[in-house]
Sequence to fold (166 residues):
Amino acid sequence: NHGLDLLRIVLMFLVVIMHVLGHGGILYELRPLTMRYGLVWLVEGLGYCAVNCYALISGFVYFNGKYRFSSMARMWLQALLYSLGIAMCVWILKPDTFSVRDLISFLLPVSRGMWWYLSAYVGLFLLIPFLNAGINAFTEKQTKIYLLVLFFVFTYRKSLFSIIII
Fold:
């Protein structure tokens, strides 16, 4: 689907912009209540929406789609190569800050949670066949009830958790 592919490209661009704004320190250098401040925080908010939309597209694509471990292995290998490239840059540019612990994190980016989205994606990828089987077994009424319960649980989870603690 070309429309979804184009949307993914736009969403990834927004995610990159969001990382530049946050990790680059731009968000915290602007004076509050200025036009630039508002614009930059608007783009940051769009970036957060982009992450959610990207996850929704992934769910849509994998629902009853072809499930291949090779695609996950390819994605993991790509993450490892990027991670090693970044590790080499850090080691060359700032060798005094680079430790053995950092090297281990760069060598195991998924299992060490270095790339949180990919770590979550791997866990979800392993559950896809079970999720598809469960969704296909639901009736339309059960699906509506389940989605409604999920909506309330994830919308009010902090409120529910604080009630349980008190």
Q: What stands out?
A: The helical segments are 2-23, 26-29, 35-62, 69-93, 100-107, 116-137, 140-155, 157-165.
